[in-house]
Structures are given as structure tokens and as C-alpha cells.
Amino acid sequence: MPRSVNHVASRKRRKRILNLTKGYFGSRRNVWTVAKNTWEKGLIYAYRDRKAKKRSFRALWIQRINAAARLEGSSYSRLMGALRKSGIEINRKVLADLAMNHPEAFKAIVQKAKNA
């Protein structure tokens, strides 16, 4: 008796991966083994870079806060220390946004931290 192979399921599985690699260069998009390896590697990069994205945004916020703090005659580390000492709990994301888009509000926070 001949072996029964489920061609429909295997073709569907391969087709799904090949559709996910649409837009890749050369044989990465249409050769099954190359496309599968590229797609799997892409998942690894995506996982890694979701973590790296958080690190790079935090670094950007710190740079923006530092630049704005220096305009007010302080530094990032002195400002963050003063904020903690005065009990002002504000995260870096919001602080960086204030520094960029609302400098008068940032200035008020810096003054409050210095005076406390």
C-alpha cells in the first residue's frame, strides 16, 4: 500500500511562510529552505530588537533631559537627584516630553526641585 502524504497541509504551511517573506531580496522570498531560515532569523531579530528599542528610547529621553537641564544651569544627575530628594515622582519619558514640548513646565519642575 502506498504511503499517504498530506500535500494540502504541507503546501499550505509552505505557502504561509513564503507569503511572510514577500518583499525579501532574491531567493530569500521564493526558495523554501532559504525563505524559512530567513523568516526564522527575522523572528529572532524582532524579539531582540523589541528589547533594544526600550533601551534606545530611555537613552534618548536621558539626553533630552540632560540638554534641557543644562539650559537651566544643572545637569541630568543633579536634577534627578533633586527630583528624588524633593519627592517629585515623574518618569523620564514624561520629563523628556516636557523638556521638548513644554519648556516652561520643565523649568517650573526644575525650580521646584531646586527649592525643595
3D structure, described in words:
The protein has 116 residues and is mainly α. It has one domain (8-115): Ribosomal protein L20, C-terminal domain (c-terminal domain of poly(a) binding protein, Orthogonal Bundle), CATH 1.10.1900.20. Helix content is 76%, strand content 0%. The chain contains 5 helices and no strands. It has helices spanning 7-20, 32-71, 76-86, 92-101, 103-115. It is rod-shaped, with a radius of gyration of 26 Å. The termini are far apart. The mean pLDDT is 95.
Protein traits:
116 residues, mainly alpha, c-terminal domain of poly(a) binding protein, 76% helix, rod-shaped
Category by helix and strand content? mainly alpha
Strand portion = under 5%
Identify the CATH architecture. Orthogonal Bundle
How confident overall, as mean pLDDT?
95
What Rg do the Cα atoms give?
26 Å
Distance between the termini: 87 Å
CATH homologous superfamily classification:
Ribosomal protein L20, C-terminal domain
Would you count the extended β strands for me?
Answer: 0
Give the overall shape, derived from the CA principal axes. Answer: rod-shaped
Low-confidence stretches: none
Q: Can you count the helices?
A: 5
How are helices and strands ordered from N to C?
Answer: HHHHH
Helix content: over 70%
Q: What's the CATH class, please?
A: Mainly Alpha
At CATH level 3, the topology is c-terminal domain of poly(a) binding protein
Largest sheet: none
Number of domains: 1
